Each structure stands twice: as structure tokens, then as C-alpha cells.
């Protein structure tokens, strides 16, 4: 989420970055906030960071955002493949990326999964692929668009959710009054022939960026209940705003700041939301069954090791991993104890201050649950932490 001039300054050699990442992997950036007797967290077990691929496809799209690990083999995708989308185009204009690439762990090669027309008529404002993406067990891929014509919010559109088949072909676009710049990584409950998607929408009220842009407390979390008939594209059966009132604002450097990370508890009774503007993690209760908005819910934890929290996943231990936007750290949180446990440097690029500032976006667990994938957007790479 950077201007082209800044991107040129941020290039570092892969060798230097790899050495820094390995050094960072050996130590925690901070001690636990308090003595903690629970089982070892995931971050403590991470010892290696391996750069896998450069995510730039042939058309030059850059700024990797969403990461999805394929739950099944279907079409051109194998189970365990890693899908990554791009938010910027070759000219580094934000909200103009239109491609999804597919990293194949078995061959260590990358292929183009989808190239979506920038001017897709069914999507208000066109296409700029965001951090909202998932692949369902039925093979369908759903990806969000937060589009712009000039790389700024001055020309942003409301966007949509685009449904692709397992060969990367467009099946349909979902656009409703409740969808306005689908922004954050999705939380999903997938039952095969039906599924529930949660996606944050950060575009309501947000207009042109300025030196002091206002915060609009209109961002929402939308639940979409889908029916998935055999051999047919998903159909929206019901849509419900389950959370509202989160802050969002335009930003000249990073396009848009709003709620980004979504993750469900193991029993699906709690939905965790990373509130970037509020620098906190909030909780929405009964997300699958509620028929009204919970507002911003209740606060789980704030500040401390969090520095504008972005993408978020749940670990096999039931903890949360949250990437920071304002430094190169990922934070582990015990939601039961409401404690921030550790922060680990995973991007130590000193071209930014603090190191890694603005580099981290998507994050996804490995299939074995013993590590995670993440992207470093300044050098357009997919990295594996184990």
C-alpha cells in the first residue's frame, strides 16, 4: 500500500532480508506481558523463515494482500496450494490489482490462477483485489474488490465480491447495499453445500484522502449465508450486518485504514475483529445466529504489543496471531485470558522505520498447523514461517 516512489526506496537484497529474518526468528521481540503457565504458543515454536516466491505475475501486478491455503483439489488448484492476490497494478496504483497467483508447494512453482478484467461491469467501480478472499470446499473462490481508478480513495468504488470457479473463471459478482469496499480477511464456516462468510466493509462514508482525513465510524462486518447447489455457483440466501460502528479513514500512503482481521473461535460462538483505528481486538458474540448488529462488541485487548492490527488467524491452540501494520511484527494473543503473549519480528527491513513498517498483510496457517504463510508487500514475496 505504497506510492511507487516509496517502493523504489524499499528494495533490499533477498540475501540481506533472509539473514535478518533468520536472526529475528531466533528471538522474541518482547517478553510475555505476564507470567503465563498455559501450553507453549505457536510463535515460540517458529525457527525458520523461508522466502518461497516473488508474487508478481507477468502483467506486473504487485502488493500481495490476501493469502488462502486451498482446502481441496479442484480445477487447476491442488489441496495445500497457496493463493495470493494483488492489490496494486504494474504502475503501483492501489486498488487496481486484478490477479490471483497460485503457489504450488509440491513443485515450488507459481502459476497464474486468475486475471480479472479491471472494468468488470458487475462490480461497482471495477476491480482492485483486497485482503478478503477464501476458497470453499466446493472449489469456488470468493475474493473482494476495493477498487480505485487513480490509486487513491478519491476515485474508489463500492466494489463487490467476485465468485470464481476452480479454474479461475468468473462465475458472478455479488454486489448489495451492505457491501462497500470489502476489506479484511474473511472468516468462514464451510459445510460443503452451504457456507457462511464474514467480511468487513470499510468504505462507508470514506471519501478523498487529505492531510488530516476524518474517521468515519461506519465500517461493518457482514455475514453472508450461502447455499451452494451441486455444480452451481454459490447463492446468497441471507445477509446480516453483525457488527457496525468501527472506524475507517482514507489515507494518502496506505489507501484505507479500517477493520481488517476476522477470526472465529473453535466453537464458532465468538468472532474476533481487529480494529485498526482503535488499535484493539474486539469480540462479537453469537456471530452465526444473531440477527442484529452487536455494534463494535466488547474489547478483548488493546494497545500493548499491537501497532495497528491487521490480518488475523486462529492457531490450533486457540490463540490469535495478528500482523501489525506499523512494524514488522506478528502478535500472539490468548483470547481466553485476554492477554497479549508475545510479538515476533517476521519482517526486519530497516528501509522502513520501525523495521517492516507497512509490509505485512495476509497471513494463513499451514495445513499441518505448525507454521504460517505471510507476505512482505514491499518486495512482493510469499514467506513460510515454521
How many separate structural domains?
1
**CATH architecture tag:** 6 Propeller
Reported for the largest beta sheet, the result is: 5 strands, antiparallel
Determine the CATH superfamily. Answer: TolB, C-terminal domain
Which percent range describes the beta-strand content?
35-45%
Q: Summarize model confidence as the mean pLDDT.
A: 91
Task: Report the total helices.
Answer: 2
CATH class: Mainly Beta
Order of helices and strands: HHEEEEEEEEEEEEEEEEEEEEEEEEE
Radius of gyration: 19 Å
Any low-confidence stretches, pLDDT <50, length ≥5?
1-36
CATH topology: Neuraminidase
**Spatial sequence of strands, sheet with the most strands:** 10-11-12-13-14
Structural class: mainly beta
Q: Report the helical percentage.
A: under 10%
How many runs of DSSP E, i.e. beta strands? 25
Which shape, going by the Cα principal axes?
globular
Q: Please give the alpha-carbon distance between the first and last residues.
A: 26 Å
Task: Describe what this molecule looks like in 3D.
There is one protein chain. The protein is mainly β. It has one domain: Neuraminidase (6 Propeller). Helix content is 5%, strand content 41%. The strands form 6 sheets. Strands 10-11-12-13-14 form a 5-stranded antiparallel sheet, with no helix packed on it. The protein has a 4-stranded antiparallel sheet with strand order 1-25-24-23, covered by helices on one side. The protein is globular, with a radius of gyration of 19 Å.
